[in-house]
Each structure stands twice: as C-alpha cells, then as structure tokens.
Amino acid sequence: MSKQIVNILAGDIGGTKTKLAIFSSDKGLDAPLVEANFPSDHYSSLESLVREFLSRQGRGINADYASFGVAGPVMNGRAKMTNLSWIMDESALASALGFSSVHLQNDLTACACAVPSFKMSDLYTLNEGIVDHAGAMAIVAPGTGLGEAYLTRDETSYRAYPSEGGHADFAPTNALEAGLLSYLQTRFDHVSYERVCSGNGLPNIYNYLKDSGYAAEPGWLAGLLTAVDDPVPVLIQSALDDDRPCPLCRATLQTFISILGAESGNMALRVMASGGVYLGGGISPRIIPLLQKGLFMDAFRRKGRMSELLGRIPVHVIMNPRASLLGAACYGLALSGKDDRK
Predict the structure, then answer these.
(1) Structural domains counted in the chain
(2) What is the DSSP letter of 141?
(3) 268 with 297, same domain?
(4) 3-state DSSP call for residue 34?
(5) Is 329 domain-assigned?
(6) Please, which residues have CB within 8 angstroms of residue 8's CB and are 6 or more apart in sequence?
(7) Domain housing 290
(8) What is the DSSP pairing of strand 137-142 with strand 276-279?
(9) CA gap 69, 106 in Å, rounded
(10) What is the pLDDT of residues 277-316, one digit of tens each?
(11) Are 206 and 291 in the same domain?
(12) Are residues 175 and 312 in the same domain?
C-alpha cells in the first residue's frame, strides 16, 4: 500500500517579513511546490495574508495542514506577535482557512527544529570548539527582535523548546554598557536584551553614543537616516564601509556585538549548550566581517570560572535565511506523518 502524500503550508511569521511555502511529503524540504515572501505589516492578520497567498496558487496546489513559526510566545494554541498587532489561534485559523489542523510555535523553536539537519554550507563557524553530540544546543537570533530557543537530545532525536530570554533584564558588562542602561531606563519601563540587541535595539545604541558625545554624527549620515524608515541597514552598512569609515556606526555595531556575545554566553550556560550555539536572525549573517574579529567570542567567553568551558563550545552563524521556514515545515511534516499513522 502506497504512502499517502501530504502537503504542508509552512510559514515563518516575522514582525517585518513573512515567508510562506507549500511542501509535499514526497518531495521533502529541498523542493517546495511554491514559495513567496510578504511584508507583514501590509496585512491586518495572518489569515488575510494566507488567503492572498493561497489565492495566487493554481487549483492543483493546495495544503492539508499548516505549521507556522511566529515571532512571539505561543500559549495553549494562541499567539500574539511581539512586534506586530496580530493575534492567532490554531483552531480559528484551521476553521477559517479549511486546514485539517494548524500548529503554531515560536519562530525560534521552528528554527531550532531545522538545526539538526543543517549542513556545514548552511553555517559560518566562529568557534570550532569540541562538539558534544549528546549535548543541548542553543539558538540566539537578533532580527527585528531578539529570539532564543534550545534543543535537547534523547537517544534517538532532538526536541526543541521555546524561550523568551530576549526579554530578560539587560545586564551591562562594562562602563559604556552601564551608561547605555541608565540612558534607556529614562525612556523605557523595562530595558531587556531585545532593547539593545536586535534591529529595534541598534538605533537605541546609536542614539546613546551620539547623545553622550562618544562620537559626532557625520552630516552625510544624518541625511541618509532622515531619508529612510528603517535606519538599521544604513547603520550596518556605514559600520562596515572601509572606504568611508564612520566611527559612530562602528562603535554602535561593536557595542551590539559585545552585548550579543555576552548574552549568547549566558544562554550557553543556562542550557549547558555543549552541542553548540547557533546565531540566527537576519542581522548575524550581515555582520560576519566584525563577528569574526574576536570581539564576539571575547564577550562570549568572559564568564569568570566558566570561561574555559565556554571556549570549548562550538559557535556557528546560521547562513540559511530559510531556517525558521524549513523548521516549521519539518515539524509540520512530522506531525502529519503521525496523524496518518493513527
């Protein structure tokens, strides 16, 4: 008896961008039937976005199940986006969109589901370390916000777990960061790692360094920032531009990297990530030239008596921009397979 072919609608639902694709159980993750990206804030809800995506497909392409990784906590089948005003419910989405079932999980949990299947071509190694194949793995992902997740391994497989550690209290590790914390405490009720280690956080670091007189803002840069809605690409590009160096932008990105290294080391300690730490999100792959200079790993290892332990932990940057999408698809296909065997 031939195995039933199942189609899965998978989604990586971010505060800035949403990626959707339909995968078939017979073709696997390497060959989606269709895939598209959407600006999340152009839609009033996930339902409206998915309806538009499905309406574009021909009659021969549909899905039986849906599996979404969403940028926010998921509790009892419901999720509210952290950086977008969408509220999602598994049962309501399944009923409205005609799926047999819908599964919601945190987007970093979805990304974690993809990590065991990564090839070395999907990664950039910052610290080779010593791999403990039975050890836990941690994911720290600065994007629009700061996502975190981890995996543990039993005898046969990995299990992914969500975390909202990016919203934990920001803990400075030097005088400059202490000044940053004091500066932001006058502007926000709560200063989390996400306030300083994400796409939303980069401008906070930049404004602090500018307002504190650390370095002057060049006129050409002020003009560029005035002309854009999102300053993050401008700040990153200006920090990496060796032809027209910007000390203020370079200091902003160096501070960001130091904080990211410290928090990644914190996460490694929390879950004893001897299997490796993986940097995800949209920012990490774009700042490889500075990540590889040692500032990140110095901050990662600077944990007193635990420094030697952290130096043995492998650290990689996830270069595959579809990690959360593939993880959501992987999880959805596994669930549908279990349903088929019932």
Answers:
(1) 2
(2) E
(3) yes
(4) strand
(5) yes
(6) 22, 23, 24, 25, 63, 64, 65, 66, 67, 329, 332, 333, 336
(7) 166-318
(8) parallel
(9) 5
(10) 999 999 999 999 999 999 999 999 999 999 999 999 999 9
(11) yes
(12) yes
